[in-house]
Amino acid sequence: MHLKNFGGDNPKGQVWTYDALEGTARPATPENTAVQSYFYSSETTDGKIDGTIDEAMTKIEGVAAPVYEALLRGEFPKDGSPERADFAVFLALMFARTTALRRMTAE
Asked: Which residue in 63, 65, 74, 95 has the fewest CB atoms around it within 10 Å?
């Protein structure tokens, strides 16, 4: 949702990604940049992946996406509107999903 707004012209629509391990940079589509599968998922006692948290985050981002796009155009949601509340939830999620906050919570 964020990175697509930084896509360049060479190559068109892609962002440059730096690989710290290899010391190289390469173009990549925004959808395939900074992605880690099952990052917020947990393993159940029977060894299966529980993606409930990932799925909830995807829904929250989906609801916030139109508001985000409107904000980029300079359009602000009205006070008390559902869109404003949806975006507030999204912002709280962005804060809560950081690696640092996850580490602090685990500690």
From this structure: 74
Question: Are 80 and 92 found together in one domain?
Answer: yes
Length of the chain: 107
* Domain identity same for 97 and 87: yes
Does 2 share its domain with 49? no
State the pTM of this model. Answer: 0.71
For residue range 23-60, list pLDDT tens digits in order.
999 999 988 887 777 777 888 899 999 988 888 988 99
Here the tokens at position 24 are 């190289």
40 & 82 share domain:
yes
Which amino acid, residue 100?
Answer: A
Domain of residue 1 covers 1-35
List, as one string, the DSSP characters of the chain: --GGGG--BTTBT-EEEEETTTTEEEEE-GGGSS--TTTT-EE-TTS-EE-HHHHHHHHHHHHHHHHHHHHHTT--PPTT-HHHHHHHHHHHHHHHTSHHHHHHHH-
